[in-house]
Amino acid sequence: MASVGQIQIATPARFRRDVVIAIAAGVLVFGLMLTGGIGAALVAAVLLVVVGVGLAKPDIATVAVVFVIYADLAAVAVRSHGIPKLLTISFFLLLLLPVAYHVIVRHARLRTDAVLGMMLAYLAVQVASAVFARDVARSMQTIVSFATEGIAVYFLLLNAIRTPAILRRCLWMMLAAGMLLGSVSILQNRAHRYDSDFGGLALTRLVTTNSAPAISDDEGRDVDQETRPRALGPIGDANFYAQMMVVLLPIAVLRLWAERKRFPRRLALASLVPIIGGVVLTFSRGAAVAAVFFCCALLALRYLKLRHAVVPLIAVIIIVALTPAYVSRLSTLMKIDSPGMRSADSSIRERSTIYLSGIRIFLDHPLLGVGIGQAPEYLPEYSNYSGHSRLHRKMGPHNMYLESLAETGVLGFAALMAMITLVIRRMWRLRQYWKIRNPEYAHTATSLLLAIAVFLVTGLFLHLAYARYFWLLFAMAGAAHAVYSPLPEASPASAEEPRSANTVPTRPRYVPVAQRLFTE
User: How many whole angstroms separate alpha carbon 295 and alpha carbon 255?
Assistant: First the structure.
């Protein structure tokens, strides 16, 4: 680990070693899960624990858990390999190892912050809304999920990530998970192996343009020419898989500016191929809107100039050439303004019905809503009086903001928006502070800011069915605020938390990305 003043910089050799270890561990675990069943998976888990303890590197547990969360390996192990759910949940207790190390051995204080307090307040609103719910058991499941995947993960990662180096590795583990999933989805698509889910990492179903189930022949070819495969990833839903992949775009792209060495910059550029490929193969319209928003944000923040617009234009041309069906699907967005949406496809009419029904639910229950997790119980009933079609099955609100209003009322919505506002404000202030003093910190804060913003854009079309990715982004932002904050009361300077606030500010020399990729 090299040092410049008070800033620790990972050497290229150490970074390459981390990348090799991460890839080898992922291939080992994936291969064992494919071939050996429960016993092999247990052996792989034991190997990871032994490596972490044997090398006396508790922070390995932090990056391993982040990788497992983002690759959704715990759910894959339970669903596709029969691993007991309790065993997979216990894996996340590995986060207690670095927390205990820093608090007990290094005598660091436990961290809490305002966002964690707001999350507890949001939890209280959820409990209050559940009191009057039709199905209290369903509401309690949602509350327990938020407590474990949201509050617990936020608190543990806030205390486990103690240095900028560990935060950087965690971000790379998120990218590694995206590269793994996107590569498997591309491989499945190009090889036409729709009869295999690749160990649970690439669930796929064939749907027609009318969203009706379809089949494929033994060789993987589509029976109908209009039938197209939609990648579902390990989640099992194309739109939510696209959501978790598209939020990685800001993290990958901003590493081109944040990294100082050639190898990580090239790796970040290479990661865009499987990430974008995974997004495209989902045929998600909401993800396309979020990607356009991200490109506009890069222009607004002056990472790209108008003359650089040829780069995303070339990417669009390649996507159109390789997946013309995606363009056909995006073109359906142009039919929304037809009278009564008569020319819009069934999914758009269905979603318009969901939105109108959700608004009616909120207006009838404005204070605490109908109870957390209860909107699917009410939407079919309210669809009899609103929208352009009738819902014949229980569905989520397909809008995280409308979901919050309908299920927790104005109190829950206010708590949620207060959290979002605070996190965005923090990342913006960190960006502004470190823009001159330490550009790497500024670019990292910007990447988290844009990743959360992209998730919020996709939230216009999706509810929080897989909220763990949202709260993981919050945890990364909370850790960034803790390790980057120049205020002593926010994170006291110590040997384990190097600061660069005392260094002489110098204006960085910005170099075009194309030149940075091939120069030291």
Answer: 15
